[in-house]
């Protein structure tokens, strides 16, 4: 048995996305079908459409979602129909070399649904990040469903499924920002602003937001930035040094994914400081740095996959903090849109008009 629903696919490199009928198989062992209620538009969806992730077209886009479990496969016990869940792209396996060493937040063998969703002619779809949630329903591994308090609106809760978790986690998990640290965040879209929220939560003394768009800097201030730098007008490395007693920041988070901004992050940190790369580069990008500077400046150069989060630990915790008013996840939602508006939302993202457009179903 299977069912047909509407979903947004990216048919080929740089081709406009379109709404198509997709076929969802009934959940098999270890799988769940989720009725999607909301799914945010993340820059990574645009990377997929542009062929920047891989060439496995057609993609079923969308991966930042919340919804209600509709049905589960025969052996699924952790979630049940009716549960309100955030979808995650780190369904921890418990058995890979990283999990066995007690580091499940890096899990190297995360679970996705085994069966394929298809177009009506049988063409197999590649779901973005193993999720594919710009669709009325989607098929995932049951471990990709993290139960949270249904009192939070799906449009808000879903943001933790990718960008907001990636940003907050880049600060609190990967960057290990601590009380009194100086932090700079380069690129203040949804992910960078979430890194600012995470840095504030962790007790950073000074948070410097860097972007090339003044509107983004304005928003970054409302998220907790104490200082802003427009790097189109001002050299960000110099500006960050000036704002940190001439030394550079303890932690610099790169949330753009480009060699030049990575280089800025590298030189804008203090000796023995930390650079966190959370922006996703494309395959042709290269970085050149004097090896002596890599050695001589010490510290650590880290990448942050999904904010090094553990969904079972971090999603409910951040939902709690949101409900207590200690973070405001709602501030990330610029607009809610329909399934047919994703292409327009990409254009608005490209123009810098939005932090998050969220598809509401
Ligand atoms: N590592 C992860 O797990 C993970 C998860 C989600 C998203 N991402 C990546 O994070 C990045 C940001 O995603 P987003 O959704 O916030 O995107 P976005 O498009 O909303 O934000 C990007 C921001 O960077 C700014 N920017 C662009 N060029 C700049 C430059 N040269 N200097 C300074 N600022 C510049 C833009 O003005 C914008 O504010 C993307 O590369 C995305 O793929 C990574
Ligand atoms: Zn694992
Ligand atoms: Zn994403």
TrEMBL record:
Which top-rank group of organisms is this from?
Answer: Bacteria
**Single Gene Ontology MF annotation:** mycothiol-dependent formaldehyde dehydrogenase activity
Q: Among its keywords, does the record have Lipid metabolism?
A: no
Keyword terms, alphabetized:
Metal-binding, Oxidoreductase, Zinc
Give EC number(s), comma-separated: 1.1.1.306
Asked whether the keyword Zinc is assigned, the reply is: yes
Q: Where is the Enoyl reductase (ER) domain?
A: 12-359
The coenzyme or cofactor needed here is: Zn(2+)
NCBIfam families for this protein: mycoS_dep_FDH
Q: Write out the similarity annotation.
A: Belongs to the zinc-containing alcohol dehydrogenase family.
| Protein name per the record | S-(Hydroxymethyl)mycothiol dehydrogenase
């Amino acid at each position: 048995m299977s069912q047909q629903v509407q979903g947004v696919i990216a048919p080929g490199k740089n081709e406009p996305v379109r709404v198509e009928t997709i076929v969802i198989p009934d959940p098999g062992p270890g799988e769940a079908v989720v009725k999607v209620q909301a799914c945010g538009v993340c820059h990574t969806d645009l990377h997929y459409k542009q062929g920047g992730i891989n060439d496995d077209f057609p993609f079923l886009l969308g991966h930042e979602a919340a919804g209600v479990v509709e049905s589960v496969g025969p052996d699924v016990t952790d979630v049940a129909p009716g549960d309100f869940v955030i979808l995650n792209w780190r369904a921890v396996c418990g058995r890979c070399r990283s999990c066995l060493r007690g580091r499940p937040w890096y899990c190297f063998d995360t679970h996705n649904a085994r069966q394929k969703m298809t177009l009506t002619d049988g063409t197999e779809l590649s779901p973005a990040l193993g999720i594919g949630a710009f669709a009325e329903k989607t098929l995932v591994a049951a471990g990709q469903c993290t139960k949270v308090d249904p009192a939070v609106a799906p449009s808000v809760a879903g943001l933790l499924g990718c960008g907001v978790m990636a940003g907050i986690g880049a600060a609190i998990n990967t960057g290990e920002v601590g009380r009194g640290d100086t932090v700079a965040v380069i690129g203040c879209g949804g992910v960078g602003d979430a890194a600012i929220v995470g840095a504030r939560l962790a007790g950073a003394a000074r948070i410097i937001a860097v972007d090339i768009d003044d509107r983004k800097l304005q928003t970054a201030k409302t998220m907790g930035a104490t200082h802003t730098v427009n790097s189109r007008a001002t050299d960000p490395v110099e500006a960050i040094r000036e704002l940190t007693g001439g030394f550079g920041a303890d932690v610099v988070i790169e949330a753009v994914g480009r060699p030049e901004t990575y280089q800025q992050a590298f030189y804008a940190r203090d000796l023995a400081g930390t650079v966190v790369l959370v922006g996703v580069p494309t395959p042709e990008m290269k970085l050149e740095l004097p090896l002596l500077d890599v050695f001589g400046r010490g510290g650590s150069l880290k990448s942050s996959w999904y904010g090094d989060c553990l969904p079972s630990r971090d999603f409910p915790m951040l939902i709690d903090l949101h409900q207590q008013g200690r973070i405001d996840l709602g501030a990330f939602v610029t607009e809610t849109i329909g399934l047919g508006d994703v292409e327009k939302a990409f254009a608005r993202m490209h123009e810098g008009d939005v932090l998050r457009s969220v598809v509401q179903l």
